[in-house]
Amino acid sequence: MKPTSYLFATFLFVMLILLSYSCGQCQTIPVLGQQFPDFTLTSYTGESISLSNLNGKNVLLIFPRGKFLDGWCRACHYQYADLARLQVDQNILTKYNLEILFVLPYPMDEVKLWTSIFPSQMRIIEQWKNPTEAQQANSRYMEFVNTVKEAFPINFKFDENNPAPLLFHVLADEDHKFSLSIGLFTTSWNFEYFEQNEPTVFILDQNRNVRFKYKSQVTLDRPSADYLIEYIEKIIMD
């Protein structure tokens, strides 16, 4: 074989390897108007949930951030609790022919832990909203307090006698493969470095088409439960 032919063959071989690797990392970023990619993941309840089996339903699909510095993202638990409030008060699942799914990029044992810590998560939020006298003297801290009060206006109190209502599936993306495939899983977001999803909300219509997408810019940047349900109502009326 001539040297030039050998070099060309080597080049092609290397390119094929690189192409094969890159396809293994391919992402399908869901965009408005396109059909959301199908997935099958297991809920903390043990049920296997496939998005394609929900055709004919509207779907509110939430990818919470997950872990956060010293523990877990409190805004994520508040988001779930706020939607559960609407389910208890208005039966939104039936009213809007709706399925609500949360997806966490962690093994099942961590997902089950996530479902069990609502009481402590809500207590931390309440502590933030009720600063000590020393904290009240700090103007920058009080700016944080005001931001928290605006982000978390409802006081949820859960304990052994009043457990959080677990009304929606929380799915385990155990190897974070699906979250990675749609461009959400990361180890670096908002200048914080750990395994997490970029918090994102999708609303899908009955044909799995993306009708709404909201990717948070910071941890407390989340559309409220009331806003999301109002948007779903508009979709149904279209």
Q: Taking Cα atoms only, what radius of gyration do you get, to the nearest Å?
A: 21 Å
Can you tell me the residue ranges where pLDDT is under 50 for at least 5 consecutive residues? 8-24
**Helix proportion range:** 40-55%
Instruction: Please name the CATH topology.
Output: Glutaredoxin
Q: Biggest sheet, open or closed, and with what strands and sense?
A: 7 strands, mixed
CATH class: Alpha Beta
Task: Classify the beta-strand content into a percent band.
Answer: 15-25%
Strand order in space, largest sheet: 2-1-7-6-3-10-11
- Give me the CATH superfamily: Glutaredoxin
* First-last Cα distance: 66 Å
The number of strands is 11
Overall mean pLDDT stands at 90
CATH architectural grouping: 3-Layer(aba) Sandwich
| Class from secondary-structure proportions | alpha+beta
Q: What is the strand and helix layout of this fold?
A:
Layout lengths: L2 H22 L15 E4 L4 E3 L7 E6 L3 E2 L2 E2 L1 H17 L1 H4 L2 E7 L3 H9 L1 H12 L3 H4 L2 H13 L17 E4 L4 H5 L3 E2 L9 E2 L2 E5 L5 E6 L9 H13 L1
Parallel strand pairs: 3-6, 6-7
Antiparallel strand pairs: 1-2, 1-7, 3-10, 4-5, 8-9, 10-11
Helix pairs in contact: 2-5
Question: Notable features of this structure?
Answer:
238 residues, alpha+beta, Glutaredoxin, 7-stranded mixed sheet, 11 strands, 42% helix
